[in-house]
């Protein structure tokens, strides 16, 4: 259901009333508010009241877009609505510009989440928030520890200036109880108080989530992260026999050096079931050929790896010789079918050198689908565009 902010509010309520016809058979419900929509506390009250009609509801999605009229009251009202749908399995709350949400709103929502005993998937993306503190994260992380069926957790807190490593300490402790988790997604983009301790706490939680199949972590612009954090995030996951996909972004974390990539590669050696790997070190300009070699060495013992996506744009100290040597080592990975490289802004590598490297890789693995993006050069499946 879409809401037009120009529409009279009584009309929206009337639409909600009509929307409850046949509500008992409805299993999926989706509300989407357009940009710059106001009066959302009132909208959430009406939604909360009507949810009681949907006794068999299993999936609820509310997308607020770039609406600025969201406050703690909005989440308190939604929490009241969730009380009426105890069978729900999938909840998604997304939006941005959440300037006015405070810890009390998160606390109210968390209390209700504790009682959704059948929850299997929860997605919560509240970008651009400056008032939710580490204490809010404590409430939130504890609310999910009772969900024995929870398989997917997707959290985003982009552009949060005050959430710190301490929040991840709370979260890491709670993660140890997410024993059914299969898909774990955490976005901490441009959160300036997040550093190496946060990654250590997250690692402590990841170690206990042994059913994981997919990990996605985005630390873009968290410039307090250094080699220590990079080296520990995937340490000790050798017992994760179902882990097939890793996606991780360290773009702009310019404290990372060769030591971080070498430690990162060393940990990857033990992830024997890994099929797809995406790693982004864009803008980590302290990295040299030595670090890249250490990273690639960690992949050479893989038996299952099918696709590698590696973003090294802006790593200006890399050379063609080092890049070629590292990539040639991938001939040991017999399962590799797809390799994607981003090499923009590498002044030490010329177009002709990249083309020569592509030809060499074709000889080593004729079946490899190779994609390269560089300055003024694009290669798709081994052919220049």
State the gist of this model.
The chain is α/β, with parallel strands linked by helices and 385 residues long. 33% of the residues lie in helices and 18% in strands. The chain is elongated and about 65 Å long.
Description:
The protein is an alpha/beta fold. The protein has helices spanning 9-19, 40-50, 72-82, 103-113, 134-143, 165-175, 196-208, 227-232, 258-268, 289-297, 320-328, 351-364; strands at residues 28-32, 59-63, 90-95, 121-126, 152-156, 183-187, 214-218, 245-249, 276-280, 307-311, 338-342, 369-374, 377-380, 383-384. The chain has a 14-stranded mixed β-sheet with strand order 1-2-3-4-5-6-7-8-9-10-11-12-13-14, with helices on one face. The model is unreliable at 1-14 (pLDDT under 50).
């Amino acid at each position: 259901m879409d809401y037009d902010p120009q529409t009279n509010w009584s009309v929206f309520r009337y639409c909600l009333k009509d929307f409850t016809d046949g509500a008992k058979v409805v299993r999926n419900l989706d509300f989407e508010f357009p940009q710059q929509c106001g009066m959302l506390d009132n909208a959430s009250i009406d939604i909360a009241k009507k949810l009681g009609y949907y006794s068999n509801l299993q999936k609820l999605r509310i997308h607020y877009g770039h609406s600025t009229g969201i406050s703690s009251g909005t989440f308190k009202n939604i929490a009241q609505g969730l009380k009426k749908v105890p069978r729900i399995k999938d909840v998604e709350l997304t939006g941005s510009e959440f300037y006015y949400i405070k810890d009390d709103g998160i606390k109210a929502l968390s209390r209700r989440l504790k009682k959704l005993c059948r929850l299997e998937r929860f997605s919560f993306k509240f970008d651009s928030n400056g008032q939710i503190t580490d204490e809010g994260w404590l409430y939130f992380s504890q609310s999910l520890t009772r969900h024995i069926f929870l398989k997917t957790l997707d959290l985003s807190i982009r552009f949060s200036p005050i959430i710190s490593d301490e929040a991840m300490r709370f979260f890491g402790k709670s993660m140890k109880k997410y024993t059914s988790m299969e898909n774990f997604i955490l976005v901490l983009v441009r959160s300036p108080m997040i550093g190496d301790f946060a990654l250590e706490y997250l690692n402590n939680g990841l170690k206990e989530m042994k059913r994981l199949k997919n990990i996605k972590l985005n630390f873009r612009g968290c410039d307090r992260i250094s080699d220590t954090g990079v080296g520990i995030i995937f340490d000790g996951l050798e017992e994760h026999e179902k882990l097939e996909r890793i996606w991780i972004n360290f773009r702009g974390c310019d404290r990372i050096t060769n030591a971080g990539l070498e430690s990162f590669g060393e940990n990857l050696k033990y992830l024997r079931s890994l099929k797809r790997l995406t790693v982004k070190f864009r803008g980590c300009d302290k990295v040299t050929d030595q670090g890249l070699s250490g990273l690639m060495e960690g992949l050479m013992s893989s038996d299952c790896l099918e696709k590698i996506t590696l973003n090294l744009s802006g790593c200006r100290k890399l050379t063609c010789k080092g890049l070629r040597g590292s990539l040639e080592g991938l001939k040991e990975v017999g399962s590799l079918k797809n390799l994607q490289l981003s090499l923009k802004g590498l002044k030490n590598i010329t177009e002709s050198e990249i083309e020569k490297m592509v030809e060499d890789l074709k000889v080593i693995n004729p079946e490899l689908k190779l994609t390269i993006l560089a300055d003024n050069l694009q290669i798709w499946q081994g052919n220049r565009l």
